[in-house]
Design goal:
With 825 residues, this protein is of the alpha+beta class. It is 28% helix and 25% strand. Strands 1-2-9-10-11-12-19-16-15-14 form a ten-stranded antiparallel beta sheet, covered by helices on one side. Strands 6, 7, 8, 13, 17 and 18 form a six-stranded antiparallel beta sheet that branches. It has a six-stranded mixed beta sheet with strand order 20-37-38-42-39-40. Helix 13 packs antiparallel against helix 14. The longest helix has 22 residues.
């Protein structure tokens, strides 16, 4: 069952009912100011840091769901409704929500009154602009009452929802003309404030929540709206809000347009106030309001936003036999990659924006799917990430976006973290040809006195793995590897304790983690990532160092076959007792998805590749995607940690983790199994799961982190109950890795150090496809022909009319257009 449809010509998803299976959201903003907005106008806004600069309030896990947002209320002769249906939930005569690239348009109609509301965050602007177009479609005049509504968060989102003994006494506002200013703590420690304005004279306002809503009312029945008036209330502590009130009369067929701005301003300390030392200096705010105070200026801002996305989405464009592939590659997958790059894992409808900043592992992987869009910002992010690294090659697992410093509360020792930086820096160089990044001086632990070259950072990353091996010669698992829920050093038996702790007294004397537990996954990742490091060294003429690094990779491959090959697949780990995990010898969790893909792509062993692909298809694949492990754990294994605490079929315990599904898609394509790769791709790609939106639940236009596995419901005796149900949408490494899987491995358009590699691995029934790719200043027009209907194999390549051996189009400086024709066979 579907709840809307794709409008590819406008790059929008059109939602046709407010009663979606879960709130379906969009993100507004591309730089510093961001908003989350649902299809019924729920959500919130923040500046840079969703915890420390939360602008509007939102309550997670609320009942009813998705309560709190930017609302407009209409009282039309006693009929009260919202353009987005919620929160009043009066049945509308017509409803539509269009989520587009950085904007959302919600339209509601009731009793011949139409309200169309467009929300967007303009480029280089610290605010959300909202245009409300009210049209009287009746044949007679209409007079109605209209309110805006936003609830201020008192800046620190965690403190805002916990420290009530203080916060109920600190809220402060200021009002001038048609603008309401939020200035809590501005007179003392803060130099920032927020405001909410409208470009028309208002008939009243409210800034005290209890006055507007009523102490025992809710968002669905605000007292002032019920009474058809406003209180002109001034917040003094408690819960400050911003609500404009206006009485509007429209003649038959007449339209009225209002433009609202929800903005954020920072002021120099010496310019915080006007001459009286109390009144906010509104100079910056007024300039922001002036910039979008007419419908014409609003339209210009929207035009600029569309041009921005036209440019970004014009870098890669494909035309395949599958419309759903085109839709994902050309529009929605790239869009999600951009959002995920901006926000990492900080703020979504599944991440509260409080507990996590920017992840080291996460942000490096996000760059893989984003680097072709805005490489300059990718370079900046890489330097930010590397600056949080430690001198021994270890890394802070997270850093805060405001300070850009490593999060000491979370710490480090996640064994896979250093390798992702090698991969992301390599991806940047392959995309741009900018080798100068390796010379950039980058501090360790944000200490400029310890700054060394980016190449030095990559070197210590590589040897951090080599220098931390266990008894079998495999990398130590440490606190966790990519799977944060496999905790081989924790042995937690205390409720509420983090599974990623160093509390186990057995290992405290050893530095906090077991020197026996080893990760086969990190070994496989090392053999996959390592050749990139070798390639960099060879390019720089460091042949001896490259030879040394290659020897370590070859050594690890041998260890993989000698100590981690289980006969038909690669094991997952050795636990702290030195026992196998992810082996046929185990009672549960016999096979895991994570190591398999990278082992295949590392060419460890051809026979092992065939057996592994067969085992994946037989043991892990389902109609809704590949489960992470099989069989699911049915009891708690203290030596494994958090993974065994989830009910079977959920999250890391045999859930369908779409992030590492992409690694298998890449691996199958790499191995020449294009049909198998595409089968796995279409099992999880949102455009393909749209038909079962009622089951899948989350947005049909973006990836989620997880889909319920075949064991979902087994704990309650209803195995398969939520098999296929999605969770944790939007902010996930799934976006970047599936972009890599479809564009670089299936379609085979892959940047390389020496040029653009084109080596497709497609379904055999495809006749071919075409693509355009902007790469290092040139436009590549690519035509793939498949007359023999094979999956993989470049039979011939013609570049600008001349035959070229191999499948790498050599980069030629200064060339503006390149025509590439490839025949498979």
């Amino acid at each position: 069952m579907k709840f809307g449809h794709f409008d590819d010509s406008r790059r929008e998803y059109v939602i046709e009912t407010p009663r979606t299976p879960y709130p379906w959201i969009n993100y507004l903003g591309t730089q510093g100011f961001f908003s989350l907005i649902s299809n019924t106008a729920g959500g919130y806004s923040f500046y840079k840091d969703a915890r420390l600069r939360r602008i509007t309030r939102y309550r997670y896990n609320n009942v009813p769901i998705d309560m709190g947002g930017r609302y407009f209320y209409i009282n039309d002769n006693g009929t009260i409704w919202n353009p987005g249906w919620s929160p009043v939930k009066t049945e509308l005569d017509a409803y539509e929500c269009r989520h587009g690239m950085g904007y959302t348009v919600i339209t509601g109609k009731k009793n011949d009154l139409k309200a169309e509301v467009t929300f967007f965050v303009p480029q280089d602007y610290d605010g959300e602009v909202q245009q409300v177009v009210l049209t009287n479609e009746s044949k007679s005049d209409k007079t109605f009452k209209f309110w805006s509504f936003a609830e201020w968060c008192l800046w620190d989102a965690q403190d805002d929802c916990t420290n009530f003994q203080r916060n109920f006494s600190t809220g402060r506002v200021e009002i001038k003309d048609s603008t309401i200013y939020h200035k809590t703590e501005y007179r003392d420690r803060r130099n920032h404030f927020a405001f909410y304005s409208v470009n028309d004279k208002i008939d009243g306002y409210d800034t005290d929540r209890d006055t507007f809503i009523g102490l025992y009312n809710g968002f669905n029945n605000p007292q002032q709206v019920l009474d058809g008036k406003c209180g002109n209330s001034l917040a003094d502590g408690w819960a400050p809000i911003a609500s404009h009130y206006k009485e509007i009369t429209l003649k038959a067929g007449e339209t009225k347009t209002l433009v609202f701005v929800l903005g954020y301003v920072e002021m120099p300390v010496e310019k915080k106030f006007e001459a009286d030392g109390k009144t906010i200096n509104k100079e910056k705010a007024l300039a922001m309001i002036e910039k979008y105070n007419t419908p014409e200026k609003f339209a210009a801002g929207m035009k600029e936003l569309r041009a921005y996305w036209d440019k970004l989405l014009g870098i890669l464009n494909v035309n395949t036999p599958e419309d759903k592939v085109n839709r994902m590659v050309n529009i929605w997958n790239q869009y999600q990659c951009m959002v995920t790059f901006n926000l990492s894992r900080s703020a979504s409808y599944f991440e509260s924006g409080i507990g996590r900043g920017m992840g080291f592992r996460d942000s490096n992987q996000d760059i893989l799917g984003f680097v072709h869009q805005i490489p300059d910002r990718a370079r900046e992010r890489l330097i930010d990430i590397a600056s949080t690294q430690l001198e021994d090659g270890g890394c802070y697992h997270q850093y805060q976006p405001l300070t850009k410093k490593g999060n000491a509360d979370i710490g480090g020792d996640f064994s896979d973290d250093p390798l992702w930086m090698i991969l992301s820096v390599s991806a940047y160089i392959k995309e741009t040809g900018d080798w100068s990044i390796l010379d950039a001086k980058v501090p360790y632990d944000n200490d400029e006195s310890k700054a060394k070259s980016m190449l030095d950072h990559l070197t210590v990353s590589f040897y951090h793995i080599v220098n931390n091996l266990g008894p079998h010669g495999l990398p130590l698992a440490m606190r966790a590897d990519w799977n944060d829920c496999i905790n081989l050093s924790c042995f937690s038996d205390t409720p509420g304790e983090s599974f990623q702790t160093y509390t186990n007294p057995k290992f405290k004397a050893e530095g906090g983690y077991s020197k026996v537990a080893e990760s086969v996954f990190v070994a496989a990742l090392f053999t996959y990532v390592g050749p990139n490091f070798v390639g960099i060294l060879n390019h720089l003429g460091k042949a001896d160092e490259a030879k040394k690094a290659q020897a370590e990779i070859d050594k690890m491959k041998k260890v993989m076959m000698d100590s981690a090959w289980d006969g038909n697949w690669f094991m997952r780990a050795y636990d702290a007792y030195g026992k196998k995990m992810g082996s046929k010898e185990c009672e549960e969790g016999q096979i895991f998805i994570e190591p398999q893909g990278f082992a295949i792509m590392s060419d460890i062993d051809k026979d092992a590749t065939k057996k592994t692909l067969a085992a994946i298809d037989e043991r892990l694949n389902t109609k809704h995607g590949l489960v992470l492990n099989n069989p699911a754990f049915t009891k708690y294994y203290v030596q494994y940690g958090e993974i065994s605490t989830y009910p079977g079929g959920y999250k890391e315990n045999a859930g369908i983790f779409t992030h590492n599904n992409a690694w298998i898609i890449c691996a199958a394509a790499y191995a020449g199994e294009g049909d198998q790769a595409f089968k796995y791709y279409s099992e999880i790609a949102p455009a393909y799961t749209e038909e079962t939106s009622d089951l899948h639940k989350t947005e049909p236009y973006v990836y989620g982190q997880m889909i319920g596995g075949k064991d979902a419901g087994s704990d309650i005796g209803q195995t398969g109950k939520n098999f296929g149900q999605g969770k944790n949408s939007w902010l996930t490494g799934t976006a970047a890795w599936n972009m890599v899987a479809i564009s670089q491995y299936i379609l085979g358009i892959q940047p390389d150090f020496d040029g653009l590699k084109v080596d497709p691995s497609i379904p055999a029934n495809w006749d071919g496809f075409t693509a355009t790719r902007l790469f290092r200043g040139a436009k590549y027009n690519i035509t793939i022909k498949n007359p023999s209907h094979v999956c993989k194999g470049v039979k011939s390549m013609v570049v600008d009319g001349k035959a070229v051996d191999g499948c790498v189009v050599p980069f030629v400086e200064g060339k503006k257009e390149v025509n590439v024709e490839i025949t498979l066979g």
